[in-house]
Structures are given as structure tokens and as C-alpha cells.
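[agent] plan:
  1. take the single chain provided in the ticket
  2. run structure prediction with default settings
  3. attach C-alpha cells to the ticket
  4. add a short note for the reviewer (M.T.)
[agent] executing step 1
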Amino acid sequence: MVSLLLLCSAAAAQPVQGAGPPPNCPARCGNVSVPYPFGIGEGCFWPGFNLTCDRTRLLLVGTIQLQVVEISLVNSTVRVLDSAGQVNLTFDGAADGNGTWGGAGPGPYVVSERHNQFVVTGCNVQATLVGDGGGNSVISGCSSFCSINNKWTGVVTSSPGYGDGATAACSGIGCCETPIPIGRPSYGVQFKYLDSSHEHDDKLPIAVRIAERGWFDAASAALLNDSSGYAPSRRPAVPVVLEFAVDSNPVVLPGVATSGCPEDAARSACRSSLSSCHNVTGNYRSGYVCQCHDGYQGNPYLAGGCKDVDECALPGICSGQCTNTAGGYLCSCPRGTSGDPRIKNG
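[agent] step 2 finished; step 3 output follows
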């Protein structure tokens, strides 16, 4: 099996900025397309966007292995599989634990705030996502409970859904999910047991994850098995969506960019004449991305990479007489008729 993984260390050789990749650069790794500014091998990528194609599935990148499964230039995202499956918590003899999600490492990537969640499973536990300042820089967190009834020895590890056929929300009974409001390349995790007796620790697998929105809802039945222990099936690879930006740098003050679209267009990664540069300013970093103009699609990071979209070839665009134009189209009624040509029988 071929794996495409993020290589977080800086490469010694870089292409001349604006020149694009040489023609002999690999365009794919297995079934994954590798569009510039990403690249495999010396001289094939924009600085910071180097990838490695490795046929040994055991290669680790940084502290965890991130296998790239999709690159979207349109959305400026990279979808990866985190083979670690969950944050590795250490306790060192203490009641509370700590861990690190260090997936993206240094470079152009941060965890997408829009596409991911912080997910915690277990009985009567709390996990907190923190930044560089530890407990002084809390980002998010949630608690997962197993309800205890003093009339019997069992515990309630799930809650019923609402409405006909509804599935239970992961909102605090057996598991909890919460947004990640600050996208970063890495996080600290602080873990706490809320039941000092630890009587029900083995009722549900204890796990802390950063995961793509919706993934846990589909996998919860298997991941919330009531039996004890940590079988390999409990640690499936977890999808995570990263966002990338060119010239990505941490912000010093919230909302104040430290980098963005270059004033000198010759220094910009946006090489297509039919593309534009868009500043990216988040809660953690700033930078910029490139997008094709409306009505065009392709690769804005390559000269000539943005191509006109033939809207007339798209279904449902025009039921009359369609004429494709540069960056758009014209839809009109046939000669001698009138009405709305955009709808059928209009």
C-alpha cells in the first residue's frame, strides 16, 4: 500500500519561486493527486509544501503519522488520516494526565476550525485542549459522564436519541464533542478523572481525539463498546482536515496579520494570470492562498493553470440557447421565442 505523508522537516533544495515544478516531478502517489505547490522530491514544491511518497506504511512524521488522502486547492485543505488513533496520555504516577497532539508540525498547516472537533470518550472524565501556555491558554474542552444510580450497581453509558429513528447525540453521556475555535499545528491535552474511586473507568474506552466533524458519529457504535481493554480495533486511523496557507506565520495580536499577499506580484505563489491572492488571518496564524477567478478552475499556483469553465456543458445551467464566454456564459431564448431560458419550458 502506498502512503503519502506530510514531511514536516525543511528540505534543503527548493524550486525557484514562481518557476513552477520541473516536468519530471511526480504528479501522483498511489491514488492521490499531488498538485503544485505540493511536491515530492527536490525542486518539486513551494517552500514548506514538501511531501514524501513512501511504500513502508510504518513511516512516522514528527510525533504521529499523517497519511494524506486528499488535497483540495479550491478549499485550501489537506485531508489526512492520523494513524495514532488518539492522543497518547501519560500520568507519571499522578491522578491527572497530559498528552500532546502534534500532528501538523511546523509549516503551512493548522487544524481546520471549521472541519474538526475535539472528541472525548470514557466514564466521568474531562479533557482540555490547550495551547503553548498550558492551563493558562485553554482552547476548548468537554466532560464525558456515565450516570450512576445508587439503587443498582450498573451505570448508564449512553443517552437516547430524540425523535423517530434519531441517534443519540454525543453530548456528555459516554462521550462528548466540542468545536475547536483556534486552529493550530499542535496542541497540549490535560486530562482529569472526575470520579476519585475510579470504579467505572473500565466501562468505556477512555480516549481523546481530534477528528473530522461527523467521523465519530458514524464510528461511535464500535468505539463505545462496553467491554474493557484497548483492542487495536479501538484505535482506527482518524481523519483530520488541515488548512494550508503560503507564508504561514503565527500572529502576535488577534486579527492582526504578520504575513499575507506580497506587494510584489513577482514574489507571489499565485502564478496564473487568471488567479487572485487572498489573505488568510486566523486566531493563530496569517498567510495567503491563491484562487482562480470566478468562471475559471484549475491550479492558480501554476502559470496558465486556471482554465475557463464551460458552463454550457454543465447540466441544468441553461434550457435555452447557451453560449460559453470567457469566465461566464450567455443564456438566451431561441430566435422568435421569449421567456426564461434558465428553466425548462420557461
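[agent] step 4 note for reviewer: The helical segments are 215-223.
[agent] ticket updated
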